[in-house]
User: Which sequence fits this backbone?
């Protein structure tokens, strides 16, 4: 599943190729995605793309008088292809940009192609998103304040997109390891010092993933086939029963909120 780092790498990869481009048309082959493709999307021709922003895992294509909202869902990927490239079975949407087409491939159809002319903060999909983990808004003081009223453990807290957005299961596990925090710790009991470590660890973990994905940037242009999600070496994620890379203790696996949690009982207290 594309996580925040894949979406951010997609944004950075597409930005120089899309900025300033005029939309020459759209091609909707399958409107039944997670939500029906917005009818207004058919009327985008003639608009100039100003920029691409990201909020959580939503890509926001700024068209001046509104935003095209794209989400990759469970299996989506975006490619920039030469115009006329034949569409495959799962290529449901193209944004035509003259001699280049931006193509959404989404086998499981949990992605989204929407349009809004309203302020982004008020859009129903965006209004309740938590703070951006890579922004300055996430720091020790903010995390400490956010956790005080929380009646849940720190791992599900991190994965609740209404509090902090875009920290998926892999990155929650890895960040808690880096910060040396037991994932079962009640969120409201995390000290300000640990909040400092955790906010740094979250940014570090996400940025490392973005860097790992940066090497595949060229794949966004001209190539065909499926986007590979980033292969990384994890501290604890998916390593149950294996030795901790730091202390040699066995990595444990538990389940929290129906999601697998991996941690080192010696390094994370
Ligand atoms: Zn350890």
Assistant:
């Amino acid at each position: 599943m594309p996580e925040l780092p894949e979406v951010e790498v997609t944004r950075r990869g597409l930005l120089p190729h899309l900025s300033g481009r005029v939309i020459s048309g759209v091609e909707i082959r399958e409107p039944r995605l997670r939500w029906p493709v917005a009818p207004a999307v058919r009327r985008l021709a003639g608009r100039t793309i100003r920029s691409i922003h990201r909020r959580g895992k939503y890509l926001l294509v700024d068209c001046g008088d509104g935003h095209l909202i794209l989400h990759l869902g469970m299996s989506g990927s975006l490619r920039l292809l030469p115009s006329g490239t034949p569409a495959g079975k799962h290529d449901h949407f193209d944004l035509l940009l003259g001699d280049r087409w931006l193509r959404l491939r989404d086998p499981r159809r949990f992605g989204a192609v929407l349009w809004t002319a309203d302020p982004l903060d008020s859009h129903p999909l965006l209004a309740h998103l938590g703070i951006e983990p890579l922004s300055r808004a996430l720091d020790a003081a903010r995390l400490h304040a956010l956790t005080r009223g929380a009646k849940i453990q720190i791992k599900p807290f991190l994965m609740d997109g209404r509090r902090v957005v875009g920290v998926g299961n892999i990155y929650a596990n890895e960040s808690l390891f880096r910060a040396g925090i037991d994932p079962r710790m009640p969120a409201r009991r995390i000290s300000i010092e640990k909040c400092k470590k955790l906010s740094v660890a979250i940014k570090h973990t996400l940025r490392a993933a973005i860097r790992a994905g940066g090497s595949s940037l060229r794949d966004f242009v001209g190539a065909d086939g499926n986007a590979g999600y980033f292969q990384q070496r994890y501290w604890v994620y998916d390593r149950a029963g294996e030795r901790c890379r730091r202390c040699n203790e066995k990595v444990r696996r538990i389940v929290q909120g129906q999601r697998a949690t991996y941690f080192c009982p010696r390094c994370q207290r």
Q: What stands out?
A: The pocket of zinc ion is lined by residues 244, 246-247, 249, 264, 266-267 (CB under 6 Å). The CA atoms of residues 13 and 217 lie 6 Å apart. Confidence is low (pLDDT under 50) at residues 222-228. DSSP finds five helices and ten strands in the chain.
